[in-house]
Amino acid sequence: AMRVLGGKERITMVTSFRPRSAFAKDDTVLTTVRGISDLSELYSQYTEYRFEMLEERLRAQLKQIRNQKRARRFNTAAVKSFITEQKGFLDAMLKELVDEDKVIQGYTDDSHLLSEETRLQSKKRARYASEEPQL
User: What are phi and psi of 10, to 5 degrees?
Assistant: First the structure.
């Protein structure tokens, strides 16, 4: 990071990797920036980015369906698979858009956002893993 002229602070910038194709799997998470960001700006940018990806995916799927319609066929399995994939995409977005009142400013860990059920499941997994016999 570069030093500011006439000051003791440093200017830093983080640029996230983003695939050019809207069809590449996107594992973007907000965990490390949520607690130190303006949530209104962060969530607006994140939602706009993800909706643009979704829009591009939907347009491509619609084009494919229209092409299939001209050929008088419809691939039900492929469409259902596409819908399931987009549902997962939207579910991931829902998980990242944490209510503002649940975000601790200045805190980058997300363990405080886990439900009690999720905490219990992870404790059970850890306990079962430690009980497995070592070969």
Answer: -120, 150
> Is the pLDDT score of 11 beyond 90?
no
CB 68 within 8 Å of CB 75: yes
- Inter-axis angle of helices 76-96 and 39-70, nearest 10: 180
In 3D space, the residue among 47, 34, 54 whose CA is nearest the CA of residue 99 turns out to be 34
Using CB atoms within 10 Å of the CB of residue 38, give its burial: 0 to 12 exposed, 13 to 18 middle, 19+ buried.
exposed
Give the number of other CB atoms < 10 A from CB of residue 50. Answer: 19
Tens of pLDDT, residues 77-116: 999 999 999 999 999 999 999 998 888 887 666 665 556 6
Distance CA 18, CA 46 (A): 12
Q: The whole model's pTM is what?
A: 0.67
The tokens describing 94, both together, are: 């829902």
Is a pLDDT exceeding 60 seen at residue 1?
no
